[in-house]
Amino acid sequence: MPITNQQVTEYAFLQQLYADEYFPDHVVDKGRAILLRLCERIEAVRPADLPALYVLTEAATEEFNLLEAEFEAAGSEIETVAREEIAEAFWFVASVYGFSHADTEELIAARDW
What CA–CA distance (Å, rounded) separates 31 from 16? Predict the structure, then answer.
């Protein structure tokens, strides 16, 4: 299902990670794909409230948890810069879909990075 939200289609997800050689692009691409799938799920499900949104973001956060091993295998990790960039991306997604009052920490509460 193609994403219909124009703000999402024009947004440069994880731009700071792409700009830093420490983060391998092929792994960052997978993180970007996780965020785009989250957007697709939000558009398909249309969560009615924050708890419903948090269910979707939890699943996406768990995908990032699995991606940590790929960062490590490539000589990188999800460290402070990456954590902040990923958290900001989750908040951006929540806000463009009408949940600007979402708690960023709750959006990524399932993280182990």
Answer: 13
Closest to 83 measured CA to CA, from 57, 56, 64 = 64
Radius of gyration in angstroms for the set of CA atoms belonging to the chain, rounded to a whole number:
13
**pTM for this predicted structure:** 0.96
Number of separate domains in the chain: 1
pLDDT level of residue 1 (50, 70, 90 thresholds): confident
Confirm whether 36 is domain-assigned: yes
Domain assignment present for residue 53? The answer is: yes
